[in-house]
Design a protein that fits this description.
Helix content: over 70%
Distance between the termini: 38 Å
Shape: globular
Radius of gyration: 18 Å
Number of helices: 11
Number of strands: 0
Order of helices and strands: HHHHHHHHHHH
Largest sheet: none
């Protein structure tokens, strides 16, 4: 195998490994829900938005014929759907959760209908679907900024997960390189905010490492 082929394989493997590691951080929430038979202190919306994001990128990967995108996002969609089902099972107030799910799934289906029925040209489909996926991913990476402001105000990183921060940083960096390698800005650009927000979180861990929650964070890692 040529050196370039080895590097490509290593990069693809890194994308798969780091992304699955990031998705698997939800297993701790799954275990908590099953042990306590409740959803206390667990947010539902991240599961739902990540699932929608996975399904969108799965469609993009299928349209592009990219096996790495297909495998990673199919696996992610299965995991996020599992988290959602367990959450709904133990959630005492199911109506708001089901309403959120139905709304986002409805938007996703309308989007699929538009791309597959009203945009017949393959190249245009790739461009518009890639733009949608990029915008959705960027919004997911930027959405925790409000929480970061609260963390700075409280001077405590107890609301943050150190393993998830590291996994997000490695995942975003590997997909940025993967997109650069393919010359695909729809993959490369939306992962740059993931790198930025992860570095901000690491800075917060360093800045408030002497706070009262330091031992708690070390236990969480």
């Amino acid at each position: 195998m040529e050196p370039g082929g080895v590097a490509d394989s290593l990069l693809s493997g890194a994308c798969v490994l780091f992304t699955l590691a990031m998705y698997s951080t939800g297993l701790s929430d799954l275990r908590h829900m099953r042990m306590t038979r409740s959803v206390d202190n667990i947010q539902f919306l991240p599961f739902l938005t990540t699932d929608i994001n996975n399904l969108s990128w799965l469609s993009y990967g299928a349209l592009k014929g990219d096996g790495i995108l297909i495998f990673v996002n199919a696996t992610g969609a299965v995991l996020q759907t599992l988290y959602i089902l367990v959450y709904v099972h133990y959630c005492p107030r199911k109506r708001p959760v089901l309403l959120q799910t139905a709304t986002l799934v409805g938007v996703l289906l309308l989007g699929f209908g538009y791309f597959w029925l009203l945009v017949p040209n393959l190249e245009t489909q790739l461009q518009q679907l890639g733009l949608f996926c990029s915008g959705f991913t960027i919004s997911m990476y930027l959405s925790p900024l409000a929480d970061l402001a609260k963390i700075i105000q409280m001077k405590s990183t107890q609301r943050l997960s150190f393993p998830l921060t590291i996994a997000t940083l490695l995942t975003s960096a590997s997909w940025t390189l993967y997109g650069f390698q393919l010359g695909d800005p729809y993959i490369m650009v939306p992962n740059l905010p993931g790198i930025l927000t992860s570095l901000v979180r690491l800075w917060l861990f360093w800045k408030y490492s002497q706070g009262p929650d330091r031992n708690y964070q070390l236990l969480q890692t």
